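The material for today's practical consists of a large collection of protein records. There is nothing in a record beyond a sequence line and a structure line. Backbone structure tokens are a discrete shorthand for how the chain folds in space. Nothing more is needed to start thinking about how sequence determines fold. As an example, a complete record with its sequence and its structure tokens follows.
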Amino acid sequence: MSGSTSVTKGARARAREEVTAAIKDEARRQLAAEGAAKLSLRAVARELGMVSSALYRYFPSRDDLLTALIIDAYDSIGAAAEAAHAGVSGQEPVRRWTTVCEAVRVWALAHPHEYALIYGSPVPGYRAPESTVRAAARVGQLLVDIVRDAHRGRGIAVQPLPGGLRTEGERLAADLAPDLPPAAATAMVAAWAQLFGLVGFEVFGQFNRVVEDREAFFSHAVTQLARGVGLLPQS
């Protein structure tokens, strides 16, 4: 009897996973067609041939579905960056840094609508919950780890902070990377913002009719970011 019950529960769990995946896939299709602001549980249910009340058993609200999609997107870009880094983990920090940055760009160009969901305009009325933080931190944490390894090894050379920024730098270091100097932690935050700004400009078309060789441009730009966080000598 217990074996039969276990099989039944396993089948139900698999069925739930399949329906959940189908709901997310349809929601992603709607994101691509209409944008996150117009995502509708009723529309998703209609396209899947479900009644709305059945879909609510999987995602009680639009925000719950958005949160699941956001976590999936952050985990996907994080996994892509981590997989790329694993292939160069024993190499020089600057190579590891540029490899991670390039993986972020490749993923974003392959998944523009999911990139827009996590790094584009905020969705009106939606506030991301705490449950998104771990996934959102994966790429940033990987970059911090690279700088930390360099700091523990041969050391890093970053520009000192001006007096007016020292308190903020100390706070950033305490919150994000306690074992890095405040100047390095501050440079990391700036580099993180610039990385996703570079990628966003390309994904959202701001480089159109401006930058032609975007791959070479990006490679040069992220190498300069590596210099800014101390992985290369300051010029």
Notes: The radius of gyration is 21 Å. The mean pLDDT is 93. The chain has eleven helices and no strands. The first helix runs from residue 2 to 34.
